[in-house]
Structures are given as C-alpha cells and as structure tokens.
Amino acid sequence: MTEPLTRAATPLRVAASARARDGGHTPHSAFHDWYARAASRTFTRVERVRLDELPGWETEPDTGNLRHHTGGFFTVEGLEVRMPAGPVPAWSQPIINQPEVGVLGILVKEFDGVLHCLMQAKVEPGNANGVQISPTVQATRSNYTGVHGGRPVPYLDRFREPGSRGSLVDVRQSEQGSAFHHKRNRNMVVEAEGEVEVHEGFHWLTLGQLHRLLAEDDTVNMDARTVLSCLPFAHAELARELGAPDDPFREALFRSCDPSAEARHPLGAVLSWITEARTRTEIRTRRVPLARLPDWHRTPERISHASGAFFDVIGVRVEAGGREVARWSQPMIEPHGTGVVAFLTRSIDGVLHVLMNARVEAGYMDVVELAPTVQCTPASYEHLPRSARPRYLDAVEGADPARVRFRSVLSEEGGRFHHARNRYLIVDTDLDVPPDDPHYRWMTVHQLVELLRHSHYLNIQARSLVACLQSLLLPGEPAPIAERKVRV
User: Fold this and answer.
1) How far apart are CA 263 and CA 443, in angstroms?
2) Cα(151)–Cα(137) distance, integer angstroms
3) What are the structural domain ranges in the chain?
4) Mean pLDDT for the chain?
C-alpha cells in the first residue's frame, strides 16, 4: 500500500513528481496530442450582448445591481472605498459579490511510485484561447448544488469525502480583492483511494509536466496555479530528489526551500509586520447601488469609467461543449490592458529571498495580503497621479533580460473575467530594501510555503508566482527565455 501523504513525507514525494518532467504514467510528448483532441471536443461560442438582454439576469430597479433570477451565482454591485493614507484616498467601483465558497481541488495518485495530478481540459467563456488546464474540480457552490440545472460535477465526491488518507492541502484562499468582495475558494489536494476512472477531458500529469506547462502562455489556468502553490514544497533535502543545483540562482533557491536556512526576517517578525499593516491601515468600504457610482456610466452594452480606464462590465451569451451546462448568459469583467505581476528576488547570504508587498485591496477579508513585488496594469496609471505609480515597476520593466528567470503570459479566471491576462515574471536583482520598510519585506520560499498552509496571507497573484518559482528548481529550463515566444 502507498504511504499516505503525511506532512513529513510529502515534500520529497512532491519533489519526485516535479522531477518527472518528461511524464510518468504517460510521456509528455503525448500531452499535446491529448490537449489538441480535448480542444477539438470542447468549444465555446461567446457573443457579446446588451446588459439588459442577459437571459436569467435582471437589473434591480432600485439599485441597478445585476443579479441572477435564482439569487445564486453572484451579483455585480457598487463599492465605495475610502483610504485616507493611500495614494488615491477615495474611489468607487463595480465589484462582484459572490459570498459562497467554491471548491478548487486536484486529485493525486501514485503510478510507478510517482505522484500524478488528475487535470482537466476546461473551457471558460473568458479565456483568450479557449481550453486551459484546470484542477480536477473547479466549481462554485451554485454549480455543485445544481442551481444551473446541469450535469453533476465529476469527482466532486472525492473532495467532499476525502477518505481515510484525508487531504494533503485544505485551505481557504482569497481571489482578486480588486474585483471580488470577500471572495474565497477552498483549495484542496486529495490523494485518491482505489481505482479512478478517467473521464473524457481529464488526464494524469506529473508536477514536472505541469511546471513545464507553466512556461507556456495561457495553458495552466489560475485555479490550477493557486492549488499547486499550496503544495508543501519546502524541505532540507530537495537535492536528493531533484539533483544538485547547476547554477548560483538555483543553489540559492534550494537553500531558500530549506526550513533551517536563515531568513532576513524570522517568520514571527514577518507575522507581526503583517498584523501591524492590517492594524494601521485605515480603509472603509461600503456596498452601494451600482447605478449610483460616480464616474461610472452604463450604456446598453457596458458599464465603463468616465476616463475609459480600468475595466468594463459587459454581458455575454455562451454556448459551450464539454461543460455541465451547454448554454448560459452572464455579466463579465473586461480589464483594459495586459497586467504585470512580478517577483524581484535576491540572494542574501546565499539564500534566495523574494520581495513581498503588504498590499491593501478593497475586497480582501482582512485588509492586507502579501502580494508580488509588482502587481499592476500599467495602462491604468496613465489616469492617476505620478505618486500612485507602483514602486519597482521601472526595475521590472527595465530589467536585464539575462536576469529574467521566468516569463510567461498567464490568464486570470475565465469564468468571471473576459480576456484578463498578465505578464508573470521572476527577476533576479541586487536591489536593497531597508529592513524597516513598512510596505516590503524580503522572505524565503520556505516562509511563503509555511504561510500558504493558512488562509488569507498570500494573494492569488503571489500564489501563481510561487508555483512558477517552484518550477525553476529543476536544472534546465523548459526553453531559454530568449527563444520562447511570448504573446502580449
């Protein structure tokens, strides 16, 4: 019988799966053939429609809020924000209110001694390229309780009743605090007991294969990335499974994953810093009628800011194959421009550190979460004061290409966002930051992994980058950055 995924045994079993970059149960060369077949069977046709012509959706006469006639799924409302000490002290915006907690779950199983993840080729109406690799289960509560009237969600019972082995990962994590009001999902990894029937559109992949796919634009979706980031990947003996590091950057990265390695700031001090940031930040939010937001205007086609910046709320009608429901309509958030999401990293005393930002977003449950060094849509700052321009954006955009360790254009959640894409980067630097900077701290990978065992410490963009950073542990990148075509 396979040893259960205990906390002590797990990191090395996860590392062994990461080592299997050419596949295990099935070779990596077969992946793209399966992916192409899945894409040919799975499709979406997305048609933009007027906001007042969304079947099943209604505009509340008193507020202008958009809501589903069942009361399920989500509503689009208004939010008023006041943050006197911020670069922009007050603003109002549309926001998605989806109070229910969904399930994002990956089922894992050993084949020939190597852990594999059961992944799904899933199409979402907001995906720029149609099909992307998704978790085994990716479902809102409205989906899995059947509010949509569609087919049951495959494999859901494996997560609702994990069995005697329990869950390797089981933690509630936030989604984008700039677009959702207090949105959370349950992130889970469960080891399968017994045989697992592989349904159409599902495929077993090693963690190493998934790491290779992270380097391909728009391939591994946001929900898969957040679950992968929560895997316990910190261990003093990773080299035993992954092989000795082949360059100074990876050597420092290996040390950063060692729980005994010395960090610039002890974890207790980091926790106090986060608590202090949450305590001192004065932010007041109030849900208000969507129809009464200043500077936001509704036309039959969209809700837009008067400046033309930030994002629009649009309506779509969808026909889809390979989904629990074949047809539906919904509002979506359509951002303006491609974003930049970046970690700056630095070796401190031979240990790689990541520069984390204590970031305030109006929709967070607890005011502040740790975010990447840079997280922004540069085009949005053309309409804001120069003082609002993110720190370190120039350091990322002007970085020496030789020091860019990771770069890929990745999509955000295609169920609520229409063609939302960010350039994800990991950039090595010699930058120094004062140890008492109130907004930034250098942290090791093992500290990030430890915080990911708990809710609401790392935001969803940071979690994506943690998964990308872990993909750099193995010698030999999937393709040199300069040879890879990146679509923007």
Assistant:
1) 7
2) 14
3) 1-488
4) 91
